Amino acid sequence: MFTLVTKTNLGLALLTAAAAAALAQNRRDPMIDLGQVPQIHENKEQHEARMQWFRDAKFGMFIHWGPCSVGQKEIGWGREANRPWDINQHGPRTSDPVYDNYYRQFNPTNYNADAWVRLAKESGMRYMVLISKHHDGFSQFDSKLTDYDIMATPYGRDIVEQFVEACHRHGMRAGLYYSTRDWYHPDYLVGDNSKYDAWYRGQVEELLSHYGTVDLMWFDHVGGRDWGKWRFDELFAMMYRLQPGMIVNDRAARFCGPASPEDRGPISAEIRDMTQGDFSTPEGRIGAMDLAHDWESCIHVGQGWSYHGEDGFKGPGDCIRMLVSCTTGGGNLLLNFGPRPDGTFAGGEVEVARAMGKWLEQYGAAVYATRGGPYRNGTWGGSCHKGDKLFLHVYEWPPEGLAFDALPCRVRSAHTLTGAPARFTQSDSAFTVQV
Questions:
Q1: How far is residue 126 from each of residues 69, 122, 172, 207, 357, measured CA to CA in Å?
Q2: pLDDT band for position 188 (50/70/90)?
Q3: Which fold has domain 13-364?
Q4: Closest CA to 135 of 68, 234, 208, 197
Q5: Which sign, positive or negative, has the C-alpha torsion 238, 240, 241, 243?
Q6: What rounded mean pLDDT belongs to the chain?
Q7: Banded pLDDT at 90 (limits 50, 70, 90)
Q8: Max alpha carbon distance in the chain (Å)?
Q9: Spatial distance between the Cα atoms of 327 and 391, rounded to a whole number of angstroms
Q10: For the chain, which residues make up each domain, given as ranges?
Q11: Which of 102, 270, 325, 328 is the most buried (most CB within 10 A)?
Q12: 81-92 burial by CB neighbour count: b if 16+ within 10 A, else e?
């Protein structure tokens, strides 16, 4: 069977007293035996089973949201203060009195997690990833380890809890983003990696303990100099103990420098490999075609990751083409939306979501549960396959049709997904098709 897809038209105390006392103890426990963590040493079949839903899903919604939306500032990066241990270190100030107080005005009374999930489903998305804490240090959940969280806002309700529960109600895979950078936390600011490491692992444990099943953990760039002062062994062992089927991205240890000789010595290859996670995350671009490794492009619909007003959105056709490029290249698309301060989506985002959903209603068979290739992506489009079906996503049909290297099997028939027949020829060396 051979099928074609036609042209795509389209300022608080950071730690409670109890938490501070616990962190002060911060023992240097022996390294965990990672051989006892099955996900780290799973065989190919076990890994394939854990990753299958992600590979089949293809399309997810990323949501960057928080008090920054009040001032229409870029989340994290809009905070005009020091960014220590980072490639974009900013300046000497350790706080931004305007940004750091947006939480006092953050009252998203129109936040409806069920409506968010319904829109994602309408758009054809199969999973969602919500920011739980970004680089600015504000926690969108009820954390016992900080007072700089959603409970200190006028809104005063756990946003993460509502989000995960809504995903569960509607059969949506739930993912959580957590920034291991924290330009607000005093220990991170002075580079006390050991103490900060224990604190952020405590927050990750809260996220993975309190809300039921979490399908995906999306870390973002811990910074710092010494690998050995970050207990990645404890982090991953804890995560897989709490969420055995969870998948993890590749940013848990990104931007870490080499271990200091006086510290714990060079980091082991086992831990380096472990922190690479299950998939890579090209940002703001379509990933290179890679059929051997899992990957996911994260790209925003609007002018930035968080809310920046009511215009400047990408068009539906551009977003559909991004999805096609990711699918045929062997990856996923995590398309980002930045809700308004009141918890609703801008009209331009809703337009994109609904248009993509309508396109997927017609062409989703050539997206979901496919695998990229065999033909390389090009200006013409790309290919993917599922079972005995090969799909060609063609952006513009040339009058003379398209020619490819011969397939290792004989083509029996060809048609578009709208049902129109396609003409094809095949030989031992070439395959051509026209519509």
A1: 26, 10, 6, 21, 11
A2: confident
A3: TIM Barrel (3.20.20)
A4: 68
A5: positive
A6: 89
A7: low
A8: 75
A9: 11
A10: 13-364, 371-434
A11: 328
A12: bbbbbeeeeeee
Residue owning tokens 């065989």? 43
pLDDT at 63 over 90: yes
Q: Which of 91, 111, 98 is nearest to 72 (CA)?
A: 98
Calpha distance 331→57 (Å, rounded) = 10
Q: Which of 17-26, 185-194, 289-298 has the highest mean pLDDT?
A: 289-298
Q: Round the CA-based radius of gyration of the chain to a whole number and report it.
A: 23
Closest CA to 49 of 283, 361, 336, 278: 278
> In whole angstroms, what separates CA 167 from the centre of its chain?
16
Among candidate residues 134, 275, 145, the one with its CA nearest the CA of residue 205:
145
Backbone phi and psi for residue 423, each to the nearest 5 degrees, phi listed first: -90, 140
DSSP H or E stretch at residue 300: strand 296-300
pLDDT at 432 over 50: yes
135 near 82, Cβ under 8 Å? no
What does pTM read for this prediction? 0.92
Q: How many CB atoms are located within 10 Å of the residue 430 CB?
A: 12
